[in-house]
């Protein structure tokens, strides 16, 4: 398959802050690539390097075969995280304005219908709800019927029904051959939409795979949480691994909870064995909850590993001193739809 978005060893630092530490990725035509990672991981910087609004210090990028500054703007669209169009335009006027920037544009009415706002065309942007405004912004990226679409947290602030409208839209765009790079903090969104997920941490792509593969590799086993005051020792004879969950994952605030026990790797038909164990030994419990691992577990696991790695590196640096490549900062340009 043809890669329409490619990055090779992209590096970018702002002063001593390394935003991208050598990111390589290739995204194929029609693929939905979910970009996830903690705040400050480098996601926006990567998108900016791929869309030509920031110049990497080194490495190369190509979108639709050209380096980003030369990418055909008629074939590309970007929805930045913070995008504030003029308030005193109606939704229809706004989409007409953006449509006017392209040689060949879609009918704004059609685009409004796509984002579920067919009846809101005459409403001023400022009079729309936050979620409706975000949907108009998504619409603004669709007026040129792009071949490559970068969406930075497109559904933030949108209600569940509206989110589903946007999800279905993204799916149908991808089915029609549009390549979508979707930055999100919503793991359900990434799991539902992304063909492939890339997890950035500290400027490095620490995982890249289908949601299913990532969950198999890093998600750990299923969890059966038992609400009980019993101690882990009460489960010594149970044939499954048992642990006492922590109040928080990672960090020094980790402390065991005293009101629940987690039994790992129990399949749904085996839950009865655990219940029998509780009953036979008269262990009091007030509830059971079985959960499969998902992308959220992958995210927490890999992000906490990256955090541990950073702590180790900081310790080593404190012990031995380090050299950091610095470079002049550059202006952050306000995002704009392409
Ligand atoms: N123009 C800039 N000047 C200085 N530092 C910057 C600039 N842009 C980004 N950074 C820094 O680079 C790092 C990566 O930032 P970036 O915005 O790419 O992260 P992100 O993953 O998009 O975060 P978030 O999830 O919060 O949007 C951060 O430490 C950030 O402070």
UniProtKB/TrEMBL annotation:
Full protein name: ABC transporter ATP-binding protein
PANTHER family (UniProt xref): ABC TRANSPORTER ATP-BINDING PROTEIN, ABC TRANSPORTER ATP-BINDING PROTEIN NATA
Annotated family: Belongs to the ABC transporter superfamily.
Region annotation (Disordered) ranges: 242-263, 306-338
GO MF annotations in UniProt: ATP binding; ATP hydrolysis activity
Record keywords: ATP-binding, Nucleotide-binding, Transport
Keyword ATP-binding among record annotations: yes
CDD domains found in the cross-reference section: ABC_DR_subfamily_A (cd03230)
Residues of the ABC transporter domain: 5-227
SUPFAM superfamilies per record: P-loop containing nucleoside triphosphate hydrolases
Pfam families assigned: ABC_tran
Superkingdom of this protein's organism: Archaea
Positions with biased composition (Basic and acidic residues): 307-318
Gene3D superfamilies membership: P-loop containing nucleotide triphosphate hydrolases
């Amino acid at each position: 398959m043809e890669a329409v978005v490619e990055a090779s060893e992209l590096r970018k630092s702002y002063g001593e802050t390394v935003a991208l530490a050598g990111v390589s990725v290739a995204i194929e035509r029609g693929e939905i690539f979910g970009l996830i990672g903690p705040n400050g991981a480098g996601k926006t910087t990567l998108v900016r390097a791929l869309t030509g609004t920031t110049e990497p210090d080194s490495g190369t990028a190509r979108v639709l075969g050209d380096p980003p500054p030369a990418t055909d703007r008629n074939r590309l669209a970007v929805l930045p995280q913070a995008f504030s169009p003029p308030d005193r335009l109606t939704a229809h006027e706004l989409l007409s304005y953006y449509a006017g920037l392209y040689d060949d544009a879609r009918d704004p009415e059609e685009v409004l219908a796509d984002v579920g706002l067919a009846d809101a065309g005459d409403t001023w942007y400022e009079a729309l709800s936050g979620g409706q405004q975000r949907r108009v912004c998504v619409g603004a990226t669709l007026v040129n019927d792009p071949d490559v679409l970068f969406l930075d947290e497109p559904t933030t602030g949108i209600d569940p029904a509206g989110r589903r409208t946007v999800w279905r839209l993204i799916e149908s765009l991808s089915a029609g051959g549009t390549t979508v790079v979707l930055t999100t903090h919503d793991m359900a969104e990434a799991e539902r939409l992304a063909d492939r997920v890339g997890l950035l941490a500290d400027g490095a792509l620490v995982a890249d795979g289908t949601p299913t593969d990532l969950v198999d590799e890093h998600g750990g086993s299923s969890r059966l949480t038992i609400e009980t005051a019993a101690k882990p020792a009460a489960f010594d004879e149970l044939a499954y691994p048992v642990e006492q969950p922590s109040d928080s994952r990672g960090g020094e605030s980790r402390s065991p909870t005293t009101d629940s026990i987690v039994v790992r790797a129990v399949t749904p038909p085996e839950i009865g064995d655990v219940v029998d164990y509780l009953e036979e030994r008269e262990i009091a419990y007030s509830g059971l909850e079985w959960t499969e691992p998902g992308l959220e577990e992958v995210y927490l696991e890999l992000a906490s590993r990256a955090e541990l790695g950073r702590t180790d590196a900081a310790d080593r640096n404190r012990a031995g001193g380090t050299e950091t490549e610095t470079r002049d900062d550059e202006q952050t340009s306000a995002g704009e739809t392409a």
